[in-house]
Amino acid sequence: MARPSGPSGSPTGDIGVLDYNNTDGNINILPLLKTIISHKIPVWIFSGDQDSVVPLLGSRTLVRELAHEMKHSITVPYRTWFYKDQIWMTEYGNLLTFATVRGAAHMVPYAQPGRALQLFRSFVKGQRLPNITQISF
């Protein structure tokens, strides 16, 4: 697990440089997500529909099971959201949101920067993703 380290690389109690290793990918973040959500802090998880590293179906299932385990019901059913094209999202208990980013692989901001920015913008503003297309005149 990543641990703060001092200048010599020895663990310290101070927040410093994080030293990651090849086992960090196996860390279960579900307990952390549960803690965050239990403190009423919104969490958004998104996945590219072309992600071969963490497939869309696996991410969607994980979020649905997490919501079920925390007894959050669906507040917004799986529906489209728009940014120049349709994309999908669902929301559980007004705190846990899962969004699919069309045309994106594992690194969503790299593959779809406009859509990633719309996700980030909506999250920071505390707004739901737009569900109508933007008409420009």
From TrEMBL:
It comes from the Eukaryota. One of its GO terms (molecular function) is serine-type carboxypeptidase activity. GO terms for biological process: proteolysis. Coiled coil: none annotated. Belongs to the peptidase S10 family. This is Serine carboxypeptidase-like 42. It comes from Dioscorea cayennensis subsp. rotundata (White Guinea yam). The gene is LOC120270763.
